[in-house]
Amino acid sequence: MSNSSFEEGKLMAVIGDEDTCVGFLLGGIGEVNEERQSNFMVVEKDTSAAAIDECFKRFVAREDIAIIMINQIYADMIRATIDKHLLPVPTVLEIPSKQQPYDVNKDSILKRAHGILKPVVRRR
Question: Highest taxon of the source (predicted)?
Answer without folding.
Answer: Eukaryota
